[in-house]
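Sorry, can you check?
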Amino acid sequence: MKQPMRWKVLPLVLFAALSAAAYDYPLSSQAVREAYFQGQRRDDSTAKLLAQYVKRLPATNAPWQVVEMEVRTPYQQVVLRSRQSLLGYSAQQASEEYRKRPPQIIVRIYLATAITQLVVREDVWRKFQFRVEQEQEIRPTAVTGWPVYVFSEQGSRLVGAEVYLELDAGKVSSGPLRVEVKSPEGQVSSAEFDLSKLR
């Protein structure tokens, strides 16, 4: 007896839906347009999409601690850039920017401090060790960071630091990506991002 046609089509539809959700590199022109329009929506669906790329870590009593990690795939970067853009930013501009920029994965790490002294070294983030791995370690092509301050009538106070690890997108595959941060005191914080579920 012949199997109904719908059962032959269904696996293809499911496969297409699953592959559309996976880490996408390099982005097709259609994917860049989709990311652009997703960012332009600036609604709950955009916020929910971007939230999938962020992991919040539990608080500790360490003087400096990792409170948040984010992985920015090329697709997510186009969504984010479009969402934050000013009026007049077009899909053509998004495509042009994507073509000009070397595709990379960016890992953003936010470090917070409970230290209340007014004088704290701004470059304390340099004492942390950062490691990214899949099957093996993926060494960043660049590591940058800067201090984060809050300002009040009493003056400014250092409250944290943001660190960015840039990875060659061609060295990253669609699968679990683990980020590990080791503090100067030896405390290790980690997060795992399943790129087979993130575009």
In short: Residues 5-19 have pLDDT under 50 and may be disordered. Residues 23-194 form one domain. The chain has five helices and eight strands. The longest strand covers residues 155-168.
